[in-house]
Amino acid sequence: MPTDCIFCKIIAKEIPSDVVYADEYVTAFRDIQPAAPTHILIVPNKHIASINDLTEADAHLLGKMNFAAKQIAKAEGVDESGYRLIINTGADAGQIVFHIHMHLLAGKKLGRLG
Ligand code: DGP
């Protein structure tokens, strides 16, 4: 684990966060700067900097993240009203933290993409 990765530190419980889900493969916690009433980050427990760094061997982790998202959406009561899942990759997408993370946004009309 890179010593400077904030999400690795959250996964390792070295810094506090509001964790809403955790299993062998993924951890999910509330975004510190929420962009919607429900804003949760779903991350693989393994450090992978971005989708650009994903290997075929680790591709199943994206499935685990999506399945966690489904369960979290239900637990948060937004599965029926709807939610958006976003993975920012690179500068133009606005990726700030280089540990793959999926944003789960919900709780309001989210508008168009882009
Ligand atoms: P992105 O732009 O896709 O890299 O989004 C990174 C998100 O991570 C951003 O919405 C804010 C959030 N974030 C950054 N640092 C922390 C932290 O220490 N704790 C939590 N809970 N969220 C963080």
Q: What's the oligomerization state?
A: single chain
- What is the mean pLDDT? 97
Q: Can you count the beta strands? A: 5
The CATH architecture name reads 2-Layer Sandwich
Task: Report helical residue fraction.
Answer: 10-25%
How many distinct domains? 1
Please give the radius of gyration in angstroms.
14 Å
Strand order in the largest sheet = 1-2-3-5-4
CATH topology: HIT family, subunit A
* Distinct small molecules: 2'-deoxyguanosine-5'-monophosphate
Largest sheet: 5 strands, antiparallel
Keywords for this structure?
single chain; 114 residues; alpha+beta; HIT family, subunit A; 5-stranded antiparallel sheet; 2 helices; 5 strands; 20% helix; globular; binds 2'-deoxyguanosine-5'-monophosphate
Question: What is this entry, summarized?
Answer:
This protein has 114 residues and is of the alpha+beta class.
How would you explain this protein's 3D organization?
There is one protein chain. It is built from two helices and five strands. The chain has helices at 6-11, 60-76; strands spanning 19-22, 26-30, 38-44, 83-86, 102-106. By secondary structure, the chain is an alpha+beta fold. It has one domain (6-106): HIT-like (HIT family, subunit A), CATH 3.30.428.10. A five-stranded antiparallel β-sheet has the order 1-2-3-5-4, covered by helices on one side. The protein starts with 5 loop residues before the first helix and ends in an 8-residue tail after the last strand. The structure holds 2'-deoxyguanosine-5'-monophosphate. 2'-deoxyguanosine-5'-monophosphate (DGP) binds at residues 6, 17, 29-33, 41, 88, 94-97.
